[in-house]
Amino acid sequence: MILTQLVRHDVSGGGVWNASATLWQRYDQPWDGFAGGRGSALLIGSIAVVYDSPVRHQITIFKVSMTQHAADLGWTVDLLCNDALGFANLTLDRCPRAALPAPLPADPFFAGRVLTG
């Protein structure tokens, strides 16, 4: 549902989203460049997603990147995610969090040492 709505609001058709199955990009305005190019539109941020992981019919947001332009305009990670999730009447706060395993401990054989070539 979200991807369908993001595609309906595509930057080349007057919207502000450039979305694929794995990356949702939000721009500050529709693309106005030559032959449908980006033109003067500036990227707000990108949301990297995975579908059907960890559970079928769910989307996992695993990385969100923001531009300095977005920060200058007052955008936050929450606002960017909520803008996309809003197409499904969701917010980041109302979405469950995936339980992730703890990262592996640092390699004790290299602790505190700097390797040189």
Short description:
With 117 residues, the chain is of the alpha+beta class.
Describe it for me?
By secondary structure, this protein is of the alpha+beta class. Helix content is 19%, strand content 21%. It contains 3 helices and 4 strands, in the order αββββαα. The protein has a 4-stranded antiparallel β-sheet. A hairpin with a 7-residue loop joins strand 3 (43-51) and strand 4 (59-66). The termini are far apart.
- Proportion of strand residues: 15-25%
The number of distinct helices, counting runs of at least 4 residues, comes to: 3
Q: How many E strands?
A: 4
List the secondary-structure elements in sequence, H or E: HEEEEHH
User: What is the averaged pLDDT score?
Assistant: 89
The shape is: globular
The percent of residues in helical segments reads 10-25%
Rg from alpha-carbon coordinates: 18 Å
Low confidence ranges:
none
Q: Could you give a short account of the major beta sheet?
A: 4 strands, antiparallel
Distance between the termini: 51 Å
Strand adjacency order, main sheet: 1-2-3-4
- The secondary structure category is alpha+beta
